[in-house]
Amino acid sequence: MKQAAFATAALSLATLALAALPPLPESVLRQDANEVVVGTVISVVTTEERRDQHWADQLYEIKVAVQTVEKGVGVQPGLPVISHGRRVLERPPGWVGPVGVYAIEGAKAGVKLRLYLYDDQGKMDVMTPNGLEVLETP
After folding, report:
1. Residue 34, Cβ neighbours under 10 Å: how many?
2. What is the pLDDT of residues 84-120, one digit of tens each?
3. What is the C-alpha separation between 62 and 36, in angstroms, rounded?
4. Does residue 75 fall inside a structural domain?
């Protein structure tokens, strides 16, 4: 009986360990963001960053024409903002941790987004894991 209980506990812990970060509540996103903006994607540039054979990320540079500033003073409506994000492409076997920005693949030219941004040493990064919200697609 002890072995079955131990096996069940080990399996439960292994399942939890493989999970990505849970989405942040909207209230936490809004509180922690330096800027919250709504706008339409002008362009997206992606590059692959590979550290070794088991470690690769897709990096995103998203240029957005800001329509509304819901929080912050560093961005103005009518002006573009460039934000950065990433998503995991590959990790070593057994690796556990964040997977990047969940909906980042939805950032395409013409798509209307809400971005929860934070200032990372002078550049605006999309908050992980769910700081990008697709509002409308063309």
Report:
1. 17
2. 999 999 999 998 888 899 899 999 999 999 999 999 9
3. 15
4. yes
